[in-house]
Amino acid sequence: MGRVKVTHDKKVAIKTLLETGLSQRAVAQLSNVSQKCVFGVANKLKQKLPLSNTPGQGPKKASTPTDDRRLLRIMKKDRTQSSQMLASEWTLSNGKKMSAPTVRRRLLSMGYKSYTAKKKPMRKPAQIKQRVIFARDHQYWTTEWNNVIWSDEAHFEVLNRKNGSLVRRLKSENNEPFNFVPRVQGGGGSVSARGCMSGGGGGSLVVYTGRVNGPSYIKIIQDAVPDFIEGAFGQTNTNWVFMQDNAPPHKSKFARRWLKDNNIRLLNWPASSPDLNPIENLWDYFDKELRRLKPMNVRQLQTMIEDLWKSVTCQQCQKLVDSMPRRVKQCVLARGGTFSKY
Question: Where is this region: Disordered (predicted)?
């Protein structure tokens, strides 16, 4: 930690104590400052100098405001560059030797902190356009989102978690076992699950194995979706729509024919839009809980996922669905591009 600036009032208090005849050590203890600070005040009193710092006192900055603006321009060319790389390029631009810590201090003083880049889907221009159209068409929906049946699948591995873990340690403890999270090829086994929900709560969770094509996708949802529609909406509410993403099995001829034959109305969903699907937040919550629960095999993993699904409350589902107007608004503001909130 750098030196703490001593206020003028504190220096006046130190001066008063010195004038009473106390030793510098005693004054330092009473004032909660270093003896060096008390010595500096005493020296100024002896030389009859003002207690305030004189202009220009202290170390000079290695860079000028012009240099700092140049650093900002360099950083904005590639925001992923390390401080060391920025320092090298900055030095070449002005001829002054700059260190990585200096770069970090200058950027922090200008409000630029380092954040972890989020992994988001890569989208083609046509997909971005679809997202804009969808968001603008639904930007005034409020309670209508409660009539959407949100569905999605997720894949969980026994050992490999999506969310990272932070470890608190000393610098000298970098090789201790608690620094490392076991990671194996294939994740030590995996479980695939598909669920659906609405604002009123969740439906049944279907666990499956193997690759999914059109027929196997219909086999997964053929009982779960109609049962959920009947239980959540009954015969009175016929305004429901079923949401599914644009995965190839969902768009296959077999799946489309089954959905049409069973009068399952679909929400026209834009491609590559997991950030608009509220059920994705449930899977993220499951992954964080599994990191805490630490399953050791596939059977444990499946049991934990099923228990987590059963523990999801109607309030949780409603809260996620209530976020849809905000998600759509963010999508409109981002013009169909990526936004960081969801």
Answer: 49-68
